[in-house]
Records
---
Amino acid sequence: MEAIYLAIPLSALIGAVVAGLFGARIGRVGAHSVTILGVGIAFVLSLYVLYQQVFAGAETFNGTVYTWMLSDGIRFEIGFLIDRLTVMMMAVVTGVSLAVHVYTIGYMADEDDNWPKDSLAGKNAYQRFFSYISLFTFSMLMLVMSNNFLQLFFGWEAVGLVSYLLIGFWTVRPTAVYANMKAFLVNRVGDFGFILGIAAVVMYSGSLDYYDVFAKADQLADISVTILGGTQWNLITVICILLFIGAMGKSAQVPLHVWLPDSMEGPTPISALIHAATMVTAGIFMVSRMSPLFELSDVALSFVMIIGAVTALFMGLVGIVQNDIKRVVAYSTLSQLGYMTVALGASAYSAAIFHLMTHAFFKALLFLAAGSVIIAMHHEQDMRKMGGLKKYMPITYWTSLVGSLALIGFPGLSGFFSKDTIIEAVHHSSTPGHEIAYMAVLAGVFITAFYSFRMFFLVFHGEERMDKHTKEHLRESPWVVTGPLIALAIPSFFIGGFTIGSMVFGDYFGNAIYVAEQHRGLEIVGQSFHSAIGFVEHGFAGWAFYLAAAGVIAAWYMYLSNPASAAYMKNVFILPYKLLQEKYYADKANEIVFGAGSRNLGNGLWKYGDVTMIDGLLVNGSAKLVAWISSIVRQLQTGMLYHYAFAMIIGVLGLLTAFVLF
Amino acid sequence: MFSDWPLLSLTIWLPILGGVAVLLIGDKGDAAGMRRLALLISIVTFLLSLGLYTGFDSSTADMQFVERTAWIPGFDIYYYLGVDGISMPLIILTTFTTVLVILAGWDVIQKKPAQYMAAFLFMEGLMVGVFAALDAMLFYVFWEGMLIPMFILIGVWGGERRVYATIKFFIYTFIGSVFMLVALIYMYYQGDSFSILDMHKLKLNMDEQVLIFIAFLTAFAVKVPMWPVHTWLPDAHVEAPTGGSVILAAIMLKIGGYGFLRFSLPITPDASQALDWLLISMSLIAVIYISFVALVQKDMKKLVAYSSIAHMGFVTLGIFVVFQIMANPANATGSGAVLALEGAIVQMISHGFISGAMFLMIGVLYDRMHTREIDAYGGVVHVMPVFAGFAVFFAMSNAGLPGTSGFVGEFMVIIASYHANFWYAFLAATTLVLGAAYTLWMVKRVYFGEVANDNVRALKDLNSREFIIMSILVVAILALGLWPAPVVDVMHATIENLLQHVSQSKLTILVVNQ
């Protein structure tokens, strides 16, 4: 069994290495074959492991692969923890990854057009892309399969690296190479908190192993530490908030969300794989994995919930005013990540993971569908230049409809089950601040429905606003593109209904997730859950359904029925509109405070500290002082004999006087 | 099979004598033969030094491969060599790096090539001598001796302002050394021995310790270099030829860190403890202040030079944070001190690889474009894709990405310093953001974007010699990053012994004896 665990990430890694190092030799077909084979093996084996864990009743596996280092009595190890949480993540990661690999064949077919003619970097870009997405799959697998904080951090940063490489994949575009640096740096701000959290764990528990640390969690909760001035903090609270700062970076929670919309500069397949389905959910996964720690701190849970609620509501609002098709989906992703985070704060970890899973499918679907539209539109992403695509792209249309309905939580589709569960869980939560969070997630339902169908109507219905040339070439994408769309539409539709019973309200996660006695809001929701169908029926009667329906109708009215009203509304609400258009000025503030601020600080320290003070005053100053003194002393060396004779006489007299007197 | 060879003497004298041979052949005008000989000598030296690793007994803290003969009996000065878990890895780093710089200077250096190669071989022997010497006078001779080839390297093969840079370099480092010499002589008169190990046991009162500590501090802080005595380094780097920069960054800076471990901590433990706040502050300032300065540099070499200073801040932080780790009442598990010291050493080795790689990268560009201005570049990836791949890899290592060696030392020191004080770890961890910021911003401006101008357009990708050098470094960085255990394991016994020594105050023992 251990060999299988090892084979899963390694088969992805081998594909990545072969395609990356020998891409020129094996050509395009070789590169996509070897990486698809690698990820395919990983997917099949993941399903097998999933089967073993869930249906064949295999024990939780916790074992070491090798000892990275042993220092100061602390074991730094690479190892796997395979339980039901892990296997679910493995299946989702490899499954979406496989779909994206296949899709990429179609999406990147004309890749040479994206590079300057004489660029050598453009020559093997296709192969390199496949290498990167396989490398990503490897890194993500290492992250979710880890049994310790060290490897978690490895995977954490490795996915960040691949994200950096892929956002800036088209290195010739200034926006792309700006966005990838921004993404990496903002993520590093999160990692800054994360590494401090790990340091705290090591200091107080003496171990990096999850199980060792969890076993000591109760002891850690008894320790209070002083951090600033005289304030006493519970150690667990400190650890959890520090770790969560890492999650805020990776899962793009306010205020570290700024990198995700810009990450859309990368090719669309990676927006689906990395910036929607998998990497950005690493934070959600991590907090769920750490549930034995987070459960011990109400303060941390409250912090998590508020951050999530703010993200869910305010990022959704920004989605309303975006015109770039990918950016709408990106803000939608931010908002949905906010939902998952709120669920974490409500101790509804299983609901968060459940939404993570359904979201992975329908959001990957929406991104890939958007990519399909972008291919058809010759890389035009502005929705104001689309419209009426339904008749040209039927498969993309219907799969998008499934994705959009799932996203807005239409009863019966996957997203409905996961989102409604979260809303109900927040409603019954006991975490301080859940009342506000509940309002935010309910309002978010309307907003989600509104921006989703605004996008849907602008792209697929109404007037055909594209230019003539584009219109003539409009056609459905090839099967390598539509195939993955269909493959993702199926779970987007059904998987929620099939799995909610065991995953959220059953004992699917067993001991992988721990919920404290006083935090069992989700159980209250579960008491009224009898079957998926009953849940659907119940859904039609709930607030959320009417809010969603209102959102769809509002979008229909403003963008199909009476387009003039959209312009009218914009003029009436010009100030809020401007605020949303500028994304609450977060980017500008960051650029001024952190960007220009650090450059000015650097220049100041350099010019005044190094150049003027140290070099100018101290170093060259000493040299000048020596030169100055010697220029004065030099005056004594006149070369005139009688000067010297005079000095001698004075000296002798002086000495004699001293000798006589003392 | 090497066990009874005088391996240390061989590693010191083979390159020095080899350097003489290289000079002789070079004088006859056989440049190709001279280069091959220089490479051969460096490779043989490297292989010999590996014997130090394979033959090393990591279960003991005693000095190994010891050689001891009287040298100047009148002053009890011995030719006394030996290594422990601190110096042995640094010696191998030295011999390893020398192979790379000889390769890097292969046909790039056309002016007096034999002298150039010989200078590196001399320097190799002298630097190994510094790490291996157990007699303080012998140490001092090697310590000063190694300045001479470096002085010549910058002065002869350097850039336009080389005279200013060499004098600054020499005076800065020499002033520090003179104080150290005084301290060494003083201790000789106290203990009648120049053996460094005897000095470890020498009883010194607090006043003596503080003065000796400050004398060492001036010598080692300049070498590391620590803020605020760092300004010679960017100038020296900018003017030095590529190979000189590599040796300077990869090895010479480590000698400062090594000095703290070999002299300051064990000889003056009480003064080190009393003044640790000063060293910790200087280290943290180095990490933060210097990172901001690095951010705004316009010259790539200056940027990497400042980045070196910031990374060396982790070395000195790791070394001097141990006292507060051991004294922290909240540190229930009592661990962290070993982690801090081992982290400092790992950081030294890793920085040897990475800074060497960074300077070699700049050398590759400079050889082609004859400028190091960041603004002169842009879009290099389109003309040198292989090179750009290496560059991004090394940049990520410099930014401390896990899986590369750059991560290991920083991670260890950050975790260890948390054991002393949350805020030390907090300030040190800013390197995650700042280090990535200055490195990746440079990468963005040099390698990404559209091809900036025709000079860039005319660039040729790596030749096979350059490719081999870069590949070797990639392997080294990945090996240490993915499996640091083999390197860390040899240090345990030595570090534990050192800590035991350090935690025993020399003052209390005095009181007990009375």
---
Amino acid sequence: MTLTLFADLGLLIILLGLAIITAFARPAFVAVAAYMAYGLVMALAWVRLAAVDVALTEAAIGSGLTGMLLLGAVAWNQRQTEAHPRRRQIRLQVPATHPLLIIVVAAVCAGVSAVLAWVVVTLPEPPTLQVEQVRLALPATGLGNPVTGVLLAFRAIDTLLESVVLVFALVGVWSLADDAAWGGRPRSLRLVQHSHALTLLGQLLPPFGVLMGLYLFWAGADAPGGAFQGGTLLAAMWVLALSAGLAKVPAVSNRQLRLLISIGSLLFLAIGLAGWAGGVGFLGYPAGWSKALILIIEATLTLSIAVTLGMLVAGRPHRALPR
Amino acid sequence: MTELAVFGGKQLVVLALIMPLLGALLAFTIGGRTARWIALLTALVELVVVVSLAWIVVDQQIVVEYQLGGWEPPLGVRLRADGATVLVLLTATVVMTATMISAHADWQPLPDQHETRAGLVFWTLLPALWAAFNTVLLSQDLFNLFVALEILTFCAVPLVCLNGKAETFAAALRYLLFALLGSVLYLLGAGLIYGLWGTLDIGLLALEISKLNRYPPALSLALGLMTAGLMAKTAIVPLHLWLPPAHAGAPAPVSAILSAVVVKAAFVVLLRLWFELMPGSADTMVAQTQGVLGGLAIVLGGVLALRQSRLKPMIAYSTIAQMGYLFLVFPLAGAASAWGAGLLHLCSHALAKAALFLAAGQIITHFGDDRIDHLAGLGHVMPLTLLAFGVAGFSLMGLPPTGGFVAKWWLLQAAIETGHWGWAVPILFGGLLTAGYVFRVLAVALRPAATPALAASTVPHTANAMILLLALSSLLLGLAALGTGLPPQ
């Protein structure tokens, strides 16, 4: 009892420390590094709260993917500063504001946090209504993991829309390209200094990473895991291979690429409509078919998520394809 | 009605949600020159779907409900369409379809080009945004509403900086930050409510809340956070700073959609919270605050619109003022006419504002200038476009028999009925300010030009037809509302 209490207290203190470093660190790189560490420690905290699915997602997306995107932004900013030392650079600090405004904003934030802390304690425990409902309804889906049951059966519409958001977020990133660069490839992720160690890593790690990613997706039906976590790991392996120069980033006009990005959502939508034809309604699964259909949806989603996340890291198209 | 026998109301509700989603995904996947045709075809199919749904709901006087996947709440998510929903759904459909048709020739690839950046982004994100808006209208689930609002934001932000100019990137980024702040606050509130009752279904929650004698602190905090978040998204004063650069800087068809449709989404959720989840809260401090902010928005937005020298920023500031009217609904909720007035104002403003922005776009393209002082001779060169601008402007300022007139009339009635006379002041003063900035444009535009030979390219007939259609719809909406008899109970 006391041992776990000490462990939890330790986690809390580290979390707060990392949050403060993230907020106040002046060099952008330090802030991002602290933020990534914060995500990993937060994942541990979720494990302590017995929310392993949330922990996996936090580690993969909250820390890993977001951290990677932020590091990319920091590197870009550094390149810009070196290339154009005179130009105004983007700094990670609050622009000059009236001190009164800062005090008011800080007071509002502190007040909301204090009320939130007080209110959370008053919440009834646990929110019984749905926990019981999920337990009773889960056998009908053939799944063992209640989280997957919620994500792909009971609230499939949310997951369908979330998978679609990813596609449109990528369109948003691509929309920032120069008109002249449209249709071309994003800037190569290959590192400038060639390193044999990275090449070796890029060749050695992906087979294991891909296996692990596929396992995460496959296990999701009955244990913690799923398409988003598995897809993120696959994306990381792809990005590793890209950085080692072992593969090339595809051009955004590539039809196969577009199809790979949207196929997860399209198939999800198609199976949802098939449920209609099958008499169980939109996004319903016929009895006995649930698990098989959910696995097919998750497999395609894993693929689409991996490709989309990889392309998000690669960024906007940079150079037009030769005509 | 054989086709309605095949597609009952239940199927139509689902189709209304997924048709634009499917269209957006296909436009992205196939791309090229085909993307535009996919989006336009989607719009036409969606028009048929929504008109049929509206017909069923209004004709049979029914409320259509659909449990997605067959899972009943609190487990699953429910879609619901009643008379108010289909009215807004229909308005959005008319605005989206008319805007797409009027913009159909924009961002075309050159003969040796496969596709353009702006073309793919526009024809993909516009149907996607439409799907998100329809989800906001139809969904009965607080978390699902959050997801829909997120899609709406992620589609709207890239559209703001579609023309790739540096200042529009800044406007888009500011818009994104405000919208994300709103999302975070909303999600925090939804989480607290889930913690209280273990469900997110608005119907079930309303039932639980009606049983309470006094509200738990978690509920009050949740509603406060959600309301603040949604108010940031609706750009109510003092959270309005992001709106003018974003709505004025975007390309005209995007401005039309942003001002007519996108800002309304968060307001629809606010209506849901305060009319469905917490009915009878007109005299609370929250409702009074919303009303005061609405009144301030009417005055501030109107005064700032008057001070603009260019057409598009003027129309954008006008949106801030007109959103203010909507917020008067909350303190006046005790009167039967307030709800109907809000709904009517939302729809007639959507139609009129889309017409104004599209007209401004045509004026910039074909007249070559949108400085208000330089518009002399416009009436001679582009009479139809100016006519549409005028009709839409009349609806905005509330001249009879437009939709804007009936809405403001019902709001005034509500103020008298509830005995809160004070609210009549911003309603009337706002109308005066609106008349000021609309007539300022018309007066200059009807003046003959100093140098008569204004060689301008002609506005395409389809664009003029669509702008006129939108302006006249706003007018007809008022006649239809008057025809149904005074305020719906």
